Amino acid sequence: MIKAIKRWKIRNQLLAAIVLGGILGFSVFGFLWFQEPNVWRFCQRFPVLSWDSGALFQALKEKAKETVVPDADGSQEDGEDAFAAVKDFLDLRDEYTSIYLYSTETGLYIAGAYASMMDEILERGIFDIGYRVTGGSGEMYFSQVMQFKNCEAEVVVFSYHRSKIAYPYFLISAALGILVFLAVVLHFISRKMRSITRLKDAILRMAEGDLQQVVPSCGEDEIGILAHELDQLRITLDENIQQEAQSRRANQDLITVMSHDLRTPLTILNGYLEILKLGRNDPKMQEEYLERCLRKTADIKEMTDKMFEYALVFEDREQIHPARLDVNTVRSFLEEHCDFIRLAGFDVRFCSTASMGTVMADAAILKRVFTNLFSNILKYGDKKQAVTVQYSIERDMLRIVFFNAIRQDQAGVESNRIGLRSVEKMVTMHHGSFYVLEEDGTFMVKVMLPLYTG
């Protein structure tokens, strides 16, 4: 359940926190307010807050024996006379007590006096608000029939002493309930703010270049998703920076090595050419010198090809300019290379079933793909076994597959496969796919290019 809640959106979690805080706050208030009678009884232990109803009624009974209650018919004049007649009896009340007399025979009101604190505007306003809010909890009602000097009458007493405890206690209970509600909501907000702060600190660390520290987990809501994606971005940036640093070092090393390696064959080649130019060499050695020049130029070409392949693999700036190419044009590229390696002594079996369709490709880059693949066959292929090239259409894709055996003297030789990596990158630039498989002395390469459907 808790895990499911953590996956909620922040607005739903906030709504749940508000509802939970409201329930807990109202429960705390309800529990405390339910204890109000016990609090009132407890406060009666203190003289300042106590009020003895029994003592009041005992004093009223004693005074009633000396008091003559006049008859009253409800008129204003009779009411004033009745009040004057029982004034000493009514004066037994204090400022928080109201006393009223009613006839036991007719039930009519005889006389009475309300609590004097009602005359204070401020206290009366507070009392009225508290009375409405608490449902009259600050008022206590007592009624008793007493024997006066000339008759019996019902004495009704309203005491407001309890309001001195009930109203402040109500405010305290309500305040505690609100505090519980706010505590739950603010705790939720505080947790989210701490998550945002941790996320801010992580962003600042990344801005300063520190990509090693993991972005802390922040749950599974929107902030958590943002933290997770930021951590993935950190990992990707770190990997890209490391790869860029490695590619720079590799390029620098390549340039250094190539500069050194090229100097030797160029110096030798230059020496042979100067000898041939001067014509001082033995005519019988001229053909040998020319053969050596050709070998050196082949070495130089191999080195420069290697450098270009490195540049393609480690640089992302090369752009392609695709155009519609008929599959027959692509097949012609393959056939040219097949004819070339035949001249080099390979037995080539070209199987073609694709005759209709077009691909979106850059012809120059596509030729480089085939040049690299056939150069790979020339370097490592075994002339004793046939080279198979399959050319077909499969599921809206142009499928080109190369099979060749690996020469025994090249088996087990470790290669950096820069040529294959450059081919993979060029095929990927055409939204195609590239597969390589080496097994039991056989080397297989498959190139898949999407057919144009526009």
Summarize the SSE layout with pairings.
Blueprint: H1 2-6, H2 10-34, H3 36-43, H4 53-64, H5 76-85, H6 87-90, E1 97-103, E2 109-113, H7 121-134, E3 140-147, E4 152-159, H8 163-207, H9 222-278, H10 283-314, E5 323-326, H11 327-343, E6 348-352, E7 358-361, H12 363-380, E8 387-393, E9 397-405, H13 418-429, E10 433-439, E11 442-450
Parallel strand pairs: 6-8
Antiparallel strand pairs: 1-2, 1-4, 3-4, 5-7, 8-9, 9-11, 10-11
Radius of gyration: 52 Å
Q: Main β-sheet: number of strands, strand sense, barrel status?
A: 5 strands, mixed
Shape: rod-shaped
For the terminal residues, how far apart are their CA atoms?
A: 51 Å
Q: Estimate the mean pLDDT confidence.
A: 81
Write the H/E string, N to C.
HHHHHHEEHEEHHHEHEEHEEHEE
Total strands? 11
Which regions have little confidence, pLDDT < 50, spanning 5+ residues?
A: none
Strand order of the largest sheet: 6-8-9-11-10
Beta-sheet strand percentage? Answer: 15-25%
User: Looking at the chains present, what oligomeric state does this protein adopt?
Assistant: single chain
Structural class: alpha+beta
Helicity level: 55-70%
Helix count? 13
